[in-house]
Specification:
By secondary structure, this protein is an alpha+beta fold. It has four domains: about 20-50; about 60-220, Chondroitinase Ac, Chain A, domain 3 (Sandwich); about 225-385, Sandwich (Chondroitinase Ac, Chain A, domain 3); about 395-435, no CATH class. The chain has helices at about 15-25, 30-35, 40-50, 180-190, 190-195, 270-275, 375-385; strands spanning about 60-65, 70, 75-80, 90, 100-105, 125, 130, 135-145, 155-165, 170, 205-210, 215-220, 225-230, 235, 245-250, 255-265, 280, 285-290, 295-305, 325-330, 340, 350, 355-360, 365-370, 395-400, 405-415, 430-435. This is ZU5 domain-containing protein. Keywords: ANK repeat, Cytoplasm, Membrane, Repeat. It is found in: Cytoplasm; Membrane. Pfam families: UPA_2, ZU5.
Length: about 425
């Protein structure tokens, strides 16, 4: 027992233990030395303690959650945010040129010094997404899945992605997330069984990119058909309202530019509620970019105004005093200002549509009303309601009894499906009702 060491004895932390280990090695039998330096043992020791420089990219990518950041290497990974955000970052194998720490978090718009500029009818469909490292480049496309709460109303609206590389200026992110590119990323990152189990509710937008900007913004807007049109001319038609068309003759443009065409239908119920059954309106048609003057007039075709009371529609001919053409040339973030330009614009009636020419890109609207003097006033009132951005939301009601004759109710308007993340569950409130 005396030969055993005493744990209570003080330890000399200044002693160099390397000398002791060297002395132990010198006193070891030669056979032991030969055994430890044999190639077999060296290989085992390396695989046990060594960290290889080359990572086995044949291994499946990591599928874990993250709070704000995570590490990614040549193996790739599919990481989902843990804070109820639902954001998922998918980096396929061989896309990261070197190990890097990826940061991804939500920000409120008011936290930015330069928030994205939004035009009328546009709104954020989720919070701003901050990414890092800013400017990081990948060897191929990576994908970011972001849940949104914008209501697309079938095909009437769409989701577009804005990006800011420097935190000050914003532009549209033009990387097209086509189905082939999305499937290629999913096939490289998930097994077949996992792909079939992926939840695709339609409330998630997929962003494909080969580099990281500072911010991404998910924006909902009226669907816009975009075509590149040059001096040779061309035609753009709406997929929302197929009768809406814009025809550019040869020479209307001096160089090739991207031309956008929007058609926003106005429900007859809304028009009747605000203006009565004796007023009918057409879809609101917008030619982008606005406030541009064409070298030759372009021809716009818009359906005739429709009303809830079908019997009040006029059989238009060459003279239609109740049909008014309203125009707003304001653009950008400026509110629309409607003017009656009927007197200076001849109409052509073809089937159920009205055609006219214009030399300026603007926002146009047809209205059929008896009191033509108030046409612009009524248009402004109806437009103010029609331009509101629709969102997907639900209401949840929580209740808690605090006395024999007293209870508390809390009503929430929620844009996601996470009722359990509220504090009411921790405060022993009970969910008593919710919308469908």
């Amino acid at each position: 027992m005396k030969s055993l060491g005493d744990d209570s004895l003080p330890i000399d932390v200044t002693r160099d233990e390397r000398g002791d280990s060297n002395r132990e090695c010198m006193t070891a039998p030669p056979a032991a030395i030969d055994d430890t330096i044999s190639p077999q043992h060296l290989k085992e020791a390396y695989s046990q303690f060594g960290t290889p420089d080359n990572i086995d990219i044949g291994r499946h990518p990591l599928h874990i959650g993250f709070l704000v950041s995570f590490l990614v290497d040549a193996r790739g990974g599919a990481m989902r945010g843990c804070r109820h955000s639902g954001v998922r970052v998918i980096v396929p194998p061989r896309r990261a040129s070197q190990p890097m720490r990826v940061t991804c978090r939500y920000l409120k718009k008011d936290k930015l010094n330069h928030p994205p500029p939004l035009m009328e009818g546009e709104a954020l469909a989720s919070r701003i997404l901050e990414l890092g490292p800013v400017g990081a480049k990948f060897l191929g496309p990576v994908m970011i899945e972001v849940p949104h709460f914008g209501s697309l109303r079938g095909k009437e609206r769409e989701i577009v992605i804005l990006r800011s590389d420097n935190g000050e200026t914003w532009r549209e992110h033009t990387f097209d997330p086509n189905e082939d590119a999305v499937q290629d990323i999913l096939n490289h990152s998930f097994d077949k069984e996992e792909i079939t189990n992926l939840d695709d509710t339609g409330r998630t937008t997929r962003i494909l990119t080969t580099d990281f900007p500072h911010y991404f913004a998910v924006v909902t807007r009226v669907r816009q058909e975009v075509h590149a049109i040059g001096p040779e001319g061309g035609m753009v038609s709406s997929s929302v309202v197929p009768q809406v068309q814009a025809v550019f003759p040869q020479g209307a443009l001096t160089k090739k530019i991207k031309v956008g065409l929007q058609a926003q239908p106005i429900s007859t119920e809304l028009a009747a509620k605000l203006l009565g059954n004796r007023v009918a309106v057409s879809p609101i048609v917008t030619v982008e970019p606005r406030r541009r003057k064409f070298h030759k007039p372009i021809t716009l075709t818009i359906p005739k105004p429709q009303a809830a009371n079908k019997g009040m529609l006029n059989q238009y001919s060459g003279d239609a005093p109740t049909l008014r053409l309203l125009c707003s040339i304001t653009g950008g973030t400026t509110r629309a200002q409607w003017e009656d330009v009927t007197g200076s614009t001849p109409f052509t009636f073809v089937n159920d549509c009205v055609s006219f020419t214009t030399t300026v890109s603007a926002r146009f609207w047809l209205m059929d009303c008896r009191n033509v003097v108030d046409a612009t006033k009524m248009a402004t009132e109806l437009y103010k309601e029609a331009i509101h951005v629709p969102f997907m939301a639900k209401f949840v009601v929580f209740a808690k009894r605090v006395g024999e004759l007293e209870a508390r109710l809390r009503v929430f308007c929620m844009t996601d499906d996470k009722e359990d993340k509220t504090l009411e569950h921790q405060e022993h409130f009970t969910e008593v009702a919710k919308s469908r």
